[in-house]
Amino acid sequence: MKAISVCISTYEMGGKGPDFLRFSFERLTKQTLKDFDVVISDQSKNEGIKNVCDEYSSKLDIHYFKESPSSTPSDNNNNAMRRAQGKLIKILFLDDFLYSDTSLEDIVKNFDLKKDKWLLTPCIHTKDGIEFYRPFYPSYDDTKILFKNTISAPSVVTLINDDPTLFDQRLVWWQDLDFYKRCYERYGAPKILKDVNVAIRVHGNQMGNSSKEKIREDEYRYILKKHHIHGFWKLSLIYKVKKFKRQFKSLIKRNMGEGATRLYLSIKKSVSNVLAVIKYRITFYPLCVRFGTSDVSVLEQVFIKKNYNIDFGDMNPKLIIDGGANVGYTSVLFAKRFPHAQIYSIEPETSNFAVLKKNASRFPNIHPLNNGLWHTSGKLDIVDSGLGEWAFMTTESSSTSTASIDALTIDDILKMSGSNKIDILKLDIEGAEKELFSKNYESWLGKVDTLIIELHDRMKPGSSAAFYSAIEKYGFTRELKDENVVLRRNI
After folding, report:
1. Cβ atoms of 450 and 488 closer than 8 Å
2. What string of H, E and C letters represents the secondary structure of the chain?
3. Torsion over CA of 117, 75, 11 and 175, rounded to 10 degrees?
4. 21-49 in b/e burial notation, b at 16+ Cβ within 10 A?
5. Residue 191 burial by Cβ neighbours in a 10 Å radius (0-12, 13-18, 19+)
6. More confident residue, 63 or 299
7. For the CA atoms of 481, 482, 484, 490, what is the dihedral angle to 10 degrees?
8. How much is the average pLDDT of 21-37?
9. Paired sense of beta strands 392-396 and 379-384, if any
10. CA-CA distance, 441 to 457, in Å (whole number)?
11. What confidence tens digit (pLDDT) does each residue in 62-108 have?
12. Which segment of 72-86, 179-193, 212-226, 438-452 scores lowest on mean pLDDT?
């Protein structure tokens, strides 16, 4: 019996299926773990998938099974899982692939066959299989899982092969969320690994993109009844409102030229942005917002999407560090919420810092610092990533640099504040987390109660690995809040 079976359900996928499978097979041939086989369930109407399987039959242990083209996607997934003979079942959708050469080895090494029943791994997104962005770290919340996907695609799931939980054959759009819910009800909470393991491919032929609106609505009503969700009619009404918005956008795209569509969306976004800016400039007067810059997007993240609307319980923080403060919106939010806290706002880029000082001028407890956070003292250069004012990066200064800033360590800020504890540490430092958590973090990391961080592997590969390696022994609990990872120290 193999250690693990990689189960891939296949179909034409708009003609791209064979190419995606060939790409995935190439990744599988490079795995450091060799004790695995591949199970293919194919509902294609042609021989494209089978030909790829024949092409790789000498390199991989492949078991090919034909599924009826009229079967549902869930039937196809289930057929592959039922045919698996390995001790573990690794689900891998056709357009996704293993991220590293050690992906299968990492799963098998961390899956305790005596204790674990299902396991989740972080993933990262790609459009071409070359450039990667937006790493995603799964979490499970049983109260939200049917309405918000906090896990990602089923390609991040590995199950023990003991009468495994299967997909509901009645579902297409909601098959993954229903599957996660039933896994939880049967197995309990999943084990979750810390390192990116799978790449999720983003493209126009994804199953979700092709799902019809009627299928979505029917399935939504079905899962509400199936799982006995309270407030059925209210939730159904909310769904219909969201459906109308989707249909309106679709109507615009179908009946207007590409230029007209862009104009409409541009006007809509501009009006929304202007209204939002007016609202929050009044609320937090004098709030400075530079039109035509990323300030509007940051304002939207902080005040409209409420990315930092985190449950701090009855915390009464004394020291807050806002690393990567940009123009200060998060610092202002914290200052309003915690008026007695001392807030040190660190922003390295000069034009952003000038706006930060204006926005902080009304709040005496905000201390703006024109520095870059780093793991040691020294000089830093500012690097324009080309992604706007919110994405300036820092790097160690070269010997010939004439426009550098002073680096600042977390220990430096603790000395400034006179505190021996950091109640809230927020970090959005555009990849500098790789350096910050690679060296000299032992002196301060254990003093942090709550850490909020956005990781930037897309800008600096290895950022997540450095971060998760550093925090491993500190006993933090972890959750995902929008683009941020939130850590809380167990007291």
Report:
1. yes
2. CCCEEEEEEECCCCCCHHHHHHHHHHHHHCCCCCCEEEEEEECCCCCHHHHHHHHCCCCCCEEEEECCCCCCHHHHHHHHHHHCCCCEEEECCCCCEECCCCHHHHHHHHCCCCCCCEEECCEEEECCCCCEEEEECCCCCCCCCCCCCCCCCHHHEEEECCCCCCCCCCCCCCHHHHHHHHHHHHHCCCEECCCCCEEEECCCCCHHHHCCHHHHHHHHHHHHHHCCCCCHHHHHHHHHHHHHHHHHHHHHHHHCCHHHHHHHHHHHHHHHHHHHHHHHHHHCCCCCCCCCCCHHHHHHHHHHCCCCCCCCCCCCCCEEEEECCCCCHHHHHHHHHCCCCEEEEECCCHHHHHHHHHHHCCCCCEEEECCEECCCCCEEEEEECCCCHHHEEEEECCCCCCCEEEEECHHHHHHHHCCCCEEEEEECCCCCHHHHCCCCCCCCHHHEEEEEECCCCCCCCCHHHHHHHHHHHHCEEEEEECCEEEEEECC
3. -60
4. bebbbebbeebebeebbbbbbbbbeeebb
5. middle
6. 63
7. 10
8. 97
9. antiparallel
10. 19
11. 999 999 988 889 999 999 999 999 999 999 999 999 999 999 999 99
12. 212-226
Q: Which residues pair with 394 in a beta bridge?
A: 382
Question: Which amino acid appears at position 257 of this protein?
Answer: G
Q: Which residues are CB-neighbours of 90 under 8 A, at least 6 positions away?
A: 4, 5, 6, 7, 36, 104, 107, 158
Note whether 68 and 78 are within 8 A (CB): no
Between CA 3 and CA 266 the distance in angstroms is 52
pLDDT at 307 exceeding the cut of 70: yes
Give the tokens for residue 469.
């390696």
Q: What does the block give as tokens for 259? A: 């230029």
Cα 64 from Cα 377, distance rounded (Å): 58
Contact 35, 87 (CB under 8 A): no
Report how far apart, in Å, the C-alpha atoms of 438 and of each of 122, 383, 393, 422, 462 are: 21, 20, 17, 19, 10
Which residues have CB under 8 Å from 294's CB, separation 6+? 388, 389, 390, 391
Weakest mean pLDDT among 169-183, 235-249, 331-345, 375-389: 235-249
Amino acid sitting at position 260? A
pLDDT tens column, 205-253:
555 544 455 677 778 788 888 888 765 455 555 555 665 665 566 655 5
- For strand 404-408 and strand 379-384, is the pairing parallel, antiparallel, or unpaired? antiparallel
Q: What pLDDT does residue 257 have?
A: 58
- Given a contact cutoff of 8 angstroms between Cβ atoms, the answer to whether 335 and 366 are in contact is yes
